[in-house]
Amino acid sequence: MEKLVIKNLHVAVEGNVILNGVNLTLNAGETIALVGPNGHGKSTLLQVIMGHPRYRVLEGSITLDGKDVLAMSVDERSRAGLFLGMQYPSEVPGVINADFFKAAINAKRKEKGEKLLSAMELFHILHNATKELNVSVDLANRSLNEGFSGGEKKRNEILQMMLLEEDVNMLDEIDSGLDVDALQDVAKQIVALHEKGKAFIIISHYPRLFELVHPSRVVVMMNGVVAIEGGKEIIDKIDEKGYEVLALEYGVKLEKRDEAMKNVSIEFCPGNGSF
């Protein structure tokens, strides 16, 4: 992967225009901290990149190394190297975690013409990954997210990320619901993949995660566009003064937006390593 390029992206959902011309480039090995007030398009952007069917692209393009992402199905996007760690992971009764992981990994291997994963290999991989993440390997024998606590759901998303090792990893408030120790475990895995050259777009409202993962740059979304870009000083200003003061400082007229789209649900898509 060389770069993910978003140009002039306009998006609506259920009759509401959420994105108003987003321009953003993610380079290989880069980590972007994607921040902004609630309702201003952060989660929408990640959902559109991954292919949520309820969002309608009105204008613009998304390309991954020159390939048209918008022309791909959701599972094609996953096989192309995109991963989304969701803010609200769905519970899928009857689908065992280990079976889901195996199907997702083998879909990638099949795409690359590699040997498919055996049950014994899966056990070995899961044993190592759960040990690194400080979770019980028994998590793999439970139904996907069924009865999981908020923290367990987020750790399970990170476990998927670790197993798949995609080129572009989009994490939507992956730190919510995590205690201090779990946050450090999650951050450690993000850093480990980053050191392998993987790229990240990370949404969070809390500076602590960004202190642990050291983003390459900070992107602030306001009014459905990329309004401000900079370094760590942007996060410090937000934490100290809030978004309204930041907007005034950069000459941005901050719209008042509701959070009607915040909880748009995501249905489980069999065969897609990201859902």
What is the topology?
Layout: E1 3-13, E2 16-27, E3 31-35, H1 42-50, E4 55-64, E5 67-68, H2 74-80, E6 82-85, E7 92-96, H3 97-112, H4 119-133, E8 143-144, H5 150-164, E9 168-172, H6 180-195, E10 199-203, H7 207-213, E11 217-222, E12 225-230, H8 232-241, H9 243-249
Parallel strand pairs: 3-10, 3-11, 6-9, 9-10
Antiparallel strand pairs: 1-2, 1-4, 4-5, 7-8, 11-12
What's the gist of this structure?
With 275 residues, the chain is of the alpha/beta class. The protein has helices at 42-50, 74-80, 97-112, 119-133, 150-164, 180-195, 207-213, 232-241, 243-249; strands at 3-13, 16-27, 31-35, 55-64, 67-68, 82-85, 92-96, 143-144, 168-172, 199-203, 217-222, 225-230.
**Approximate helicity band:** 25-40%
Whole-number mean pLDDT: 91
The CATH homologous superfamily of one domain is called: P-loop containing nucleotide triphosphate hydrolases
Q: Outline, from the CA principal axes?
A: globular
The biggest beta sheet is recorded as: 6 strands, mixed
Level-1 CATH class name of one domain: Alpha Beta
The portion of residues forming beta strands comes to 25-35%
**Name of the CATH architecture of one domain:** 3-Layer(aba) Sandwich
Number of strands: 12
Which sequence of SSEs, written as H and E, runs from N to C? EEEHEEHEEHHEHEHEHEEHH
State the low-pLDDT regions, or none: 259-275
How far is the N terminus from the C terminus? 21 Å
